[in-house]
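name: query_chain
kind: protein
chains: 1
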Amino acid sequence: MPNANKTKKMSIPQLKANYRPLDEILYQGYAPNVISTAMVLGLFDALAEEPMNANTLSAKLGTIENITEAFANVLVALNLLTKNGADYSLTQISADFLVKSSPAYQGATIAMSSHYGQVMNQIPKILKNGPLKFDTDMWANIEAMKVGGQGTMGGSIQDVTEFITTLPEFANLKYMCDLGGSHGFYTMALLDKNPQLNGTVLDLPKVAELAKEIISEMGYSERINTIGADLETDAPIGDRYDLVFASHVIYEWKGHLEDNLKRINNAMVPGGVFVSNHLSMDDDECGPMSGTMVELMTRLMGYPTHHLSEGELKQALVASGFGDFTVRPAEDARQYRCLILAARKLGKPGDRDIARE
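structure:
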């Protein structure tokens, strides 16, 4: 008979890794809820007026002091607030992007991202049964377009404008096409830098019609027109462009980029410049983390991909009659890790003016 009084010893594993990094990842998953709540309460707007301690801040927000203190401390840990003694202040990132009065306010963009959270909750089901049906209409409404336009103010429009305006051709550009341009903010920014430049915003017919309202509201109707067309069809897209700009729109063409790039090439004058602004991941597609997460969400939603590598884009452009590249590599220090690339339509410089006649 076994000894009933024998003591059973616990088997303590010998660890080869530290659990702490995993613990940090899991708790950071609650950060979007904290940030969204802070924006709803007006916490960042309150601290934009002056630094406050937990007592003053809770009185301003109408919240409970001891919970407000813990809440604000989380925002300090997230580097969205600083704490000096008992007083909380905004960091620069909060002042730029989370205060409603800031020109670069990203509150609506952050709120819209909650839609993706609903998709992520369905990961087990989608992994087993396949992706959702991608809804192109989600961007075909005036509010979503305006949110997208404001979203560019967080750094993207600054990066693109700086890149294009420093191209040697920029001062001589006269007619540009903003491909899949939606709100048209990129075109407006470039027109502000070049008084002889006029633009066309080309997008799906429903989007192009709504774009007219935004363009008019912003005061650019005399210099920007719109064309409603799908590049996957034979619909006219205009011609004689000396700049075609595409931002976050050509991912869907991955696998048949050449077909549409040749069509774009045909709509341009010789020597014209094509500029692409698109997300780009590491070569193994395993980083950065934000890029891998966007790619997962993209495929869960039934869209083919959300990144383009420099190599595949250059290869398709060369095969479509482009060359002479100017590249700004993807960098982690920008709003999004985008590759900005310019390519010229092959042809003699003097052919540009002949093509316009």
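note: Residues 136-356 form a domain with the Rossmann fold fold (CATH 3.40.50.150).
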